[in-house]
Amino acid sequence: QLHSDLDKGVGTVKYTLSGDGAGTVFTIDETTGDIHAIRSLDREEKPFYTLRAQAVDVDTKKPLEPESEFIIKVQDINDNEPKFLDGPYVASVPEMSPVGAYVLQVKATDADDPTYGNSARVVYSILQGQPYFSIDPKTGVIRTALPNMDREVKEQYQVLIQAKDMGGQLGGLAGTTTVNITLTDVNDNPPRFPKSIFHLKVPETSHVGSAIGRIRAVDPDFGKNAEIEYNIVPGDGGNLFDITTDEYTQEGVIKLKKPLDFETKKAYTFKVEASNLHLDHRFHSVGPFKDTATVKINVLDMDEPPVFSKPMYTMEVYEDTPVGTIIGAVTAQDLDAGSSSVRYFMDWKNDVDSYFTIDATEGTIATNELLDRESTAQYNFSIIASKVSNPLLTSKVNVIINVLDVNEFPPEISVPYETSVCENAKPGQVIQIITAADKDLSPAGQRFSFKLSSEASNKPNFTVHDYRNNTAGIETRRNGYSRRQQELYFLPVVIEDSSYPVQSSTNTLTIRVCRCDSDGTIQSCNVEAIFLPVGLSTGALIAILLCIVILLVIVVLYVALRRQKKKDTLMTSKEDIRDNVIHYDDEGGGEEDTQAFDIGALRNPKVIEDNKIRRDIKPDTLRFTRHRPPAEDNTDIRDFINQRLQENDVDPSAPPYDSLATYAYEGNGSVAESLSSIDSLTTEADQDYDYLSDWGPRFKILADMFGEESYNPDKVT
């Protein structure tokens, strides 16, 4: 209730209310000032309200006192039960855990005022799940209540937890939640075989590495705690078998490690041990975590193919061995109780197999063709053996035949060498290391020897130093070499092998003399470099060469212009007897065409002067403004040609005038003069061919043919 000191109780004062919840939650009596709640209040929704009140004069509507503010606080009552906001819960705890092992902590929330009374004081208890688990009433921590809970007995537990306010007193509100607890596995159980003896039957034809049976030990644990490792206990019979673990079924898979033979042994007995891979030291006191069982294997008799005496045969034969020579034999036997005969034949795959044959009964292998080691050094093929009683049962063996070498090829220099020697070389200097190669198969320890040929051993230029490791060095024997005197040296080297019979060959090394600097670095090996001035720079040499090229071009142009002028003079001269030949570009009309052109200019002038007219040529007057007498030096040739021309002119069966036979005569007084050596006034002895020796090795043969000096073999070493 609100009351003003100015209110005399005569109705002159009016009370007003404003602020939080005024008119909706709270209302005020304007006359008495009583404040009433017009709806129910919830502390959890709004714990307090702030209001303002004022007293005003009814008549003047003016405030009688200043506005005052006050707070209405909602008092809490226990109207909310505890709630598990995170429930239901899921938890796990290892099996065989001791009493009091921590499992999980639960928490309930009460919306009531924790500062007023016991409305928000929560107490926890277990309604379902005893006697396996317990809970702390204040903290809500769940723990194990029984020792040695076994997952293999019971794995899942459902616990019902209650939270009650008012401290658990009568009349308090309560809420519940569910906790699902799972016992996790620990390795507390060893593997156990369900029976002590396992019997297996295995055919003797089983392949090595194949699975021949399975055994299984049972482990009630789960996951990695149930993983089992199987081992064969060392002892009689176990060395032929092996055992592995199937990771999906945890079974022991027995595999064959060696072949079985019923005729040798019919049964095997051994022990297998199963043990856990992951042990828990807390349970060692329970006992050994392994178990043992006996495996008995009976071998079943099967009809088997023949068996070769060796897994592979290796034979040797010399090349060029006569056809039909026996080089070896293979042997196979039928080991079954009823022994059967064996037949042999080759497994044909390619043409290489045709080089050999095999005797079907004896198994002997012989050559069928001549062998060449240089062509094929080794042959690899297969021989098949089958039983006569059952040809479908076959076995195969590989045969390797190595062709032995017969020393038939001499050793040669392995690669072509480009050998050079400096002009300033010193005696004993190594200018080249050479090696040799032999087409024959080099046996272990074969060596090559190097030496100079007998004709070159006395020359003072070079020598060969055999290093006795299949290499040799070419060494100089002179103090300096001159390219001007001799640019190339030919050194014959004899190479011998160490096989029987000894083979040898003579190999010629070409040694080029080069210009080098003081350190021995080659600067030039060209022939032209000999004539270059020493000491000039590269730029100076290029300038000199350019000047020479320009002078040559000028000379060529000048000569060409002179010849062109002479040619023009000759072509325009009507007195030149070659005029018709130069302008002749018409084939003519054949034998009947006698008007095409004048062929008389091509004929011998003497014949024309004699007026010997051919019957197939139309007569015409020939004019010669100028006639040069024939050269007196060529009298015999001229007479021979004139005689042949006269014979053709008077021969009625001669071809027409447009044939080649009518212009075999060149004419007299050629401006270009004759290029033939027949008319030369000089003899071969008058010529000097010594300049050919300066043109290098390419013109050496010409220099030897035309030079005055005979070939001197001392210059070639």
General shape:
elongated
Query: Which structural class fits the helix and strand makeup?
Result: mainly beta
Number of helices: 5
Q: Roughly how many Å apart are the termini? A: 146 Å
The profile of the biggest β sheet is: 5 strands, mixed
CATH superfamily of the domain at 412-523: Cadherins
Task: Please name the CATH topology of the domain at 412-523.
Answer: Immunoglobulin-like
Could you tell me the number of beta strands? 37
CATH architectural arrangement of the domain at 412-523: Sandwich
The average pLDDT is: 80
Cα-based radius of gyration, to the nearest Å? 64 Å
Query: Helical content, roughly?
Result: under 10%
Output the CATH class name of the domain at 412-523.
Answer: Mainly Beta
Unreliable residue runs: 528-534, 574-580, 607-632, 709-717
Strand portion, in percent? 25-35%
Describe the overall structure:
InterPro entries: Cadherin (IPR039808), Cadherin-like_dom (IPR002126), Cadherin-like_sf (IPR015919), Cadherin_CS (IPR020894), Cadherin_Y-type_LIR (IPR000233), Catenin-bd_sf (IPR027397). Residues 4-84, 85-193, 194-308, 309-413, 413-531 form the Cadherin domain. It is a single-pass type I membrane protein. One of its GO terms (molecular function) is beta-catenin binding. Keywords: Calcium, Cell adhesion, Cell membrane, Cleavage on pair of basic residues, Glycoprotein, Membrane, Metal-binding, Phosphoprotein, Repeat, Signal, Transmembrane, Transmembrane helix. With 717 residues, this protein is mainly beta. Among the domains are: 13-73, Sandwich (Immunoglobulin-like), CATH 2.60.40; 83-184, Cadherins (Immunoglobulin-like), CATH 2.60.40; 197-300, Cadherins (Immunoglobulin-like, Sandwich), CATH 2.60.40.60; 307-404, Sandwich (Immunoglobulin-like); 412-523, Immunoglobulin-like (Sandwich). Helices cover 9% and strands 31% of the residues. The protein has five helices and 37 strands. The strands form eleven sheets. Strands 30, 32, 35, 36 and 37 form a five-stranded mixed beta sheet that branches. It has a four-stranded mixed beta sheet with strand order 6-12-11-8, with no helix packed on it. Strands 13-19-18-15 form a four-stranded mixed beta sheet, with no helix packed on it.
